[in-house]
Design brief:
single chain, 7-stranded mixed beta sheet, about 45% strand, mainly beta, about 130 residues
């Protein structure tokens, strides 16, 4: 049974940092392309980052580039999203998702193209 569990969300002040985790069971994350998405109230779900399983290349949305870093820990079957310099625009529910390794990050930002999803973890940035 495939399961993805996000954790690490919480309340932070503007400029603060959080590290989100996506722990997988029922599949080996290293064999799949993994993408982080986020969705704020009233907004569409948007792609945040994507780790291409084909070559390890990491892609980021322009809005988070230079502030967020995605990485893998294969021993823990876990993918991370380190988020720095958080601002109000980063407040959202963050999800991890796995996709077809042969597609890599081609469908980055398109939720319908991703196969398995976690339940999400809430990130709140105080004002």
């Amino acid at each position: 049974q495939v399961q993805l569990v996000e954790s690490g969300g919480g309340l932070v002040q503007p400029g603060g940092s959080l590290r989100l985790s996506c722990a997988a069971s029922g599949l080996i994350l290293d064999d799949y392309t993994v993408s982080w998405f986020r969705q704020a109230p009233g907004k569409k779900r948007e792609g945040v980052s994507c780790i291409d399983s084909r070559d390890g290349t990491v892609y980021y949305a322009d809005s988070v580039k230079g502030r967020f870093t995605s990485s893998r820990d294969n021993a823990k079957n876990t993918v991370y999203l380190q988020m720095n310099s958080l601002n109000a625009e980063d407040a959202a529910v963050y999800y991890c998702a796995t996709g077809n390794p042969f597609l890599g990050c081609t469908p980055f930002g398109v939720p319908e193209e991703w196969d398995f999803w976690g339940q999400g973890t809430q990130v709140t940035v105080s004002s």
